Amino acid sequence: MEKRAGKNLEIFNGMKGTLKKGETMLKDKVEILRQGDQSGNGMVFKTTSSNGLEVFGLATRNFYGGNWDLGPTWNYLVLADEPFLVDTGRTGTSSELREMTEITGFDIKGLHAVVLSHGHEDHDGGLADIVKLSGARVKAHPIYDRLIKLMPDKVPDGINKDFPPSCWHCVMPPSFTDNNCRNYHQNRHNLLIENICEDTSLGQNIEVIYLPGHSPDAIAVIIDSQIAIAGDNVLPHISPAPTKMESFDLVGRLFPDNHLKIQQAFGLEAYLKSLKTLKNIGENHPRLLVLPGHRLYYNDQWNDFQMETRAQEILEHHIQRCADILKIIKKKPKTIKEIMAAHFDPSLLEGMGSYMAKNEIQSHLELLAISLDIEPINGAAYIATGEDGFESYIRSLKPWS
Q1: 9-309, which class in CATH?
Q2: Fold of the domain spanning 320-396
Q3: Is 20 exposed, middle or buried (0-12, 13-18, 19+ CB in 10 A)?
Q4: 111-132 pLDDT, tens per residue?
């Protein structure tokens, strides 16, 4: 991670994964059917596995903008024996997604299923519309099904009664949620969700990998051991924001039968374990083509990377962030807001950036507390204990299983 003096361009900035010498570039593996803008918006491309299975990339607009411009959401149409679509973009982009499928020559009414990489609005916002257009079934991790259901009688005090459990921890201000989320929540609530983890019908040589951490329901899809549709589990340029253990404190009571197992799917530690899983997958398949949820094409260039290299870079990024936070609070207790101000460039704390920064700092503080390197003071501030065990703790973590 770049130091503050280097003025991070992004709040979760990391290094870009590099390709080994002689590795085939992504631009040589895809056929562009429609060129998008410089960020990739509107682009449609095709790539094909050695077994002849076609995968189409469809880039729908993502509206955050400013220092939080993730680029478009990349959705992927897989023409297996029973065709499926991975993700559906943000709310309001379903019409352009349908148009993109027409460019591929595929009739969206022939879609067998929609598979969700994870339950964030920029990936499932168009879900209800696509299901209505196509009649497709919806497949996702079972945690997703539980978290999208509206439960007004179970909403904790101080949280909007119109929010499902997936958003009880929401960091966005009402000015955002009021304009973007109300219909989205209602539309998801009414959908029938099938358990992707018990599903073997996506196709021959197609594997689903569970990778919690960025979201407790996150998955990746591996095709012919050659193509990985990775969602937001690993991205070029930017490192995905981890979940917080605090979020589980709100929703854990909804999972009485698997309480401990579900708890392990939340927090930075869960994400670090998933990164180690991804690293192992990349090492076992060194020529794996990784198709992420964002930044695949950005600033007029392809941003391909090796799975194992990028996963390791993001892991090192989080180790460095923990070290930086520990240094900030080494001599004097500081609140989360004070840590944010000391750690991030001021431009990243403007508008919604402050909410995202708070999430990032909290997730790291939780891990530092687990490794006994910090302790809370009066419930509002944190101080270093004098221990320095976080790095060895992180490096000792086993891959998620």
Answers
A1: alpha beta
A2: Arc Repressor Mutant, subunit A (1.10.10)
A3: exposed
A4: 999 999 999 999 999 999 999 9
